[in-house]
Amino acid sequence: MKHNMMRTGIIGLGRIGWNYHAKEISCHSEYDLIAVSDQDKDKLAEARKKYNCSCFDNHRQMIKESNLDVVVIASPTHTHFQMAMNLLEAGIHVIIEKPMAMNYQEAFKIFELAEKNNCLITVFQPRRLAAYFQQILTIIEKNVIGDIFWVQLAHFDYCRRNDWQSLSKYGGGMLRNYGSHFIDQLLQLIGYDIINTYCYANKYISLGDADDIVKIVLQTETNKLGEITINQASLIKPYELYIWGNKGSIKYSDGQITIEYFDTIDSEIVLEDTLNRNDRIYPKDNIKSNLEIINVDSKQEKNVYTNFADAINQKDKLIVPVKQTLEVVKTIDNCIETSSFYNV
Quick one: 317 exposed, middle or buried, by C-beta within 10 A (0-12, 13-18, 19+)? Predict the structure, then answer.
């Protein structure tokens, strides 16, 4: 093992495991990629050649033989629960791909075992870590647009999914897949005190049986409204993110953040409790607003591995704490309960 580096493993060498996690770990000063696990022998051979690591076709064998400090679970959703439990039972810290588990019951058991065995666990939520979102959170924290009351998030694309993400038996579908990203962001923006959940889902062009169209509406205890639209059958992309506050609004699209806000309202108006308005003029405030268009600063992006290492070494808190992820999974469960698509 390299000096003072955490002995790290990966379960799953598919798209995200190979293209992101293996690359990040292999070039990070805090981690030493010593073991991988996958059922595909060709993928294992590729990993052995590129990273000179131990390779296993069974994650339990990898746990038993590798003396690991950290393991990334980058396998399909339906496998997350058992793998996480096996790792935590062995006292290993875990980074897990979204969604954390198939349902809240599984996710909570993972959380309980991590607490019991004093293991750190986080879910990889790249859209929360993204530079544009971190910049938007900073703008909101500075109270530039005032109190948020309405947020709309969306993903539009035309994509006929034909992989495991299109199949319900593997935990596929856009609610769990992209929905995990946007629910995580939305809860950060409107809060976690959700009192009402509405979800519409359907399948239009996917080759599997899982949803490819999802509409989610959330209402908080303080009457904030959040909307998520995921449409995998759309050739147009009308918007990505809108945030409305009582002093302004934020729009994000194509790598630019647009903010329009005001500091004060010049006009003074009072309520007229009468049906008769002599001037026949509609009420209108005299608002001098400020308009700013900001390019996204890539340096604002947060790195999950740097943050996880700092949290293990007690230098920082997790950006994505597991208790917040439990609320994401609970919201997905509530969506499933309220949509007829999932209850046929």
Answer: exposed
